[in-house]
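Handout, page 2. Input:
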Amino acid sequence: MFFKLQEFDRKLLVDYISKEPEANVFIIGDLENYGISSEIVEFFMLPGTSGWDCLVMRYRKMFIVYSRNDSYPVQATADFIATFNTIECISGKGSLIEPLAPYFSNFSMTKSYLSSCHTPSLGDVSLPSGYNLKKLTRDDASDVIGLYVHIEEFASQYAGKEQEQIAALRADLAQEKAGYGIYKDKVLVSTALTSAENSQSAMIIGVATHQEHRKKHLATIVMHHLLKDQFEKGKQFVCLFYNNPQAGRIYRACGFEDFGTFSMLRP
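Output:
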């Protein structure tokens, strides 16, 4: 049976996730930014015979699963998550999420590489003529979502839910997200954001460039500025996940190295 964690469980929670900080950036960041129990974030623990068997974090309508043991109680975890009315995503290390897939037969699974950067490689890449770089604010949320709905990799996640996603991104950009965007004729054509920023790390998400503006190094430029910001803030490392080989080449050129896999289940 899963138990909801409270403030007095914080030390146990931090100890449990601390052995794999790169795999737990989302959990660490959301714990620091939102606390151990709020309307946005909740943590649940499944006890075992010698400690915790599994941890589930709810962030809005998304769930992250973590366990130190790949042989964790999969069915009990699936049954618990299924008790929630709305599930937009279940994610985590590939070795933990893939066994859950049979219990969510109406969900599709995507597999990605997990990658981390401890020492960024920030070359000098010039912005093409006619393009403008901007540090994003909450007022740019609609531009970001407007770009995502026109990109194949993101469209299914955002199309039809634009207003809800804009509201969520506005709130996040006001609190814990940072981002850069490149505009052409006042239209956002390339962007990258952080998520789960915390005292030691951050996750880079939502790296995207409009199809008509690719092969101009725009993604590299926004990545360079985002990485520079993060390491100037004192971050020890930054992580991301990807499944596009071409994107992987861009990230490796920026100083990222693969260290595992990340999987997501979506309805």
